[in-house]
Amino acid sequence: MQQPVAGDRSTAIPFWYPSQGRLTPDSNCTHRIIEDPEWSLATVPHLTELCLQHIADNFEKNPILDCLLPEHQRKVLDRLSTGLPLAVTANLVSDEDYWKRRCTECWQVCDISSYGDSWKRMFFERHLESILKQFIPNTTDPNQVQELIPLCKDYVRKLEVDQFLPPVQVDQKEDLSDTESDFGFDEVSMCHYDLGALIPALPHLEELHLTYGVKDCGMNFEWKLFNFTYQDCCNLAAAVKMCLNLKVFKLTQSKVDDSKTKLLVHNLLDHPCLVELNLSHNLIGDKGAQAVAKLINHSRLETLDLCNNQIHPLGAQALAQALAENSTLTSLNLRLNYVEDKGAQAIGHALLTNTTLKSIHLGSNNLSEPTATLFSQVLVQNTTLTTINFSCNPLGLDGGKQLLKGLADNKALTEFDLRMAEVGQETEYLIHQIVWANWEAARLRSMQHPVTKPLRRKLSRE
């Protein structure tokens, strides 16, 4: 019979068989019983738990969820893999905790306040954005986007794409014909992903932020990586025209010139929902500004940002003329342009009658004393403006005194930026005191009137 080994908690039990009227041991048959001191009946999972685990493990092949009890649904959702295909989970799983797990596994920083406090919306917007940022025309399979559209269309309300990759260029023969050169062979070959196939298919899209360029190109930098071709513009213009719920459109740092601006504006005229247009950091000149001026009075625009373009007095005058007749625009940003005194004075004259604009930014536009003199009149008559920015303009000491004089009885202005405007420290201090008093009075009024709670929250944050 096998002897027990020291330290072994198993027990060898011999088996006896009758033989010739007596019991004899069978030395060839020994059963070993293993004792588990931690085993108990409580460790045996319930059949329900085994079934729920089976459902979670086989969810891709057999997605059972709606027919389960609420408490059982919760357990299955907690066990679902974040690697399941979106075709399975997109329209079936609405649980926010599940989409939170998927988001946190994909991205280190996750702030759902920018996504309507919805983890599911965040996932689909950022997932679609990442595909668009890595899409290479003529190389990437277009089905990557097309197959995602029916899965994400109900959740995407905002797209922020700050990169569009150009096609991979195949070495071309040096003896290209003149005909190919005349028809812009190179430009056509550099067109980016056509958003016209995507944007109209997103019925809830309200915000579109785009930049045509390549991020982190490093030593592979080439100017052609930052081309926003005319064909790109045609495709985009047609797409935004069909996006009837679009409220915010931003196309920045994309070398948008006058011809492209005209094309975009033509497709945005009389848009039913657009309230914010941002074409900052582009190449828009006077003709482009004239086109935008036409848009101001053929839309519901409230915010217009043309910062860092090439707008001169002629373009500023066109904007001023539109401003004089407008009743919707509340914010205009012309920082870092070339409007000069002639253009700024035209805007000032428009503000003598305009009763809608609340914020005007004319920083870094080579403005001087004549502009300050005219705006001193604006400060006397206009009771709507709350924010003026004249920073980085040589207004001079006399210009500062004129502005101080105009502010004497002004109760509306709550922010006046005169940094590096050469108005003198004393004048700047006195102006600051008046503006601060107006701000404090506005804050107290907001506390007294419950209908102004949004303003109260804004002032408290500031």
**Estimated helix fraction:** 40-55%
> Mind telling me the C-alpha Rg?
35 Å
The number of helices is: 18
Q: What is the typical, i.e. mean, pLDDT?
A: 88
- Percent strand equals 5-15%
Helix-strand pattern: EEHHHHHHHEHHEHEHEHEHEHEHEHEHH
User: How many strand segments?
Assistant: 11
Taking the alpha carbons of the first and last residues, their distance comes to: 89 Å
* Biggest sheet, spatial arrangement of strands: 3-4-5-6-7-8-9-10-11
Shape: elongated
Q: Which structural class do the helices and strands define?
A: alpha/beta
Parts with pLDDT < 50 across at least 5 consecutive residues? 4-13, 172-185, 458-462
- Biggest sheet statistics: 9 strands, parallel
Walk me through the structure:
By secondary structure, this protein is an alpha/beta fold. It is 40% helix and 11% strand. Strands 3-4-5-6-7-8-9-10-11 form a nine-stranded parallel β-sheet. α16 packs parallel to α17. The C terminus is likely disordered.
From the structure above, extract its key features:
nine-stranded parallel β-sheet; 462 residues; 18 helices; elongated; two-stranded antiparallel sheet; disordered C terminus; alpha/beta
How are the SSEs placed, and which strands pair?
Elements: E1 11-19, E2 22-33, H1 47-57, H2 70-79, H3 86-89, H4 96-106, H5 119-133, H6 143-146, H7 149-152, E3 158-161, H8 178-182, H9 185-189, E4 207-210, H10 230-242, E5 248-251, H11 258-268, E6 276-278, H12 286-296, E7 303-305, H13 313-325, E8 331-333, H14 340-351, E9 359-361, H15 369-381, E10 387-389, H16 396-406, E11 415-417, H17 425-448, H18 453-461
Parallel strand pairs: 3-4, 4-5, 5-6, 6-7, 7-8, 8-9, 9-10, 10-11
Antiparallel strand pairs: 1-2
Helix pairs in contact: 1-2, 4-5, 10-11, 11-12, 12-13, 13-14, 14-15, 15-16, 16-17
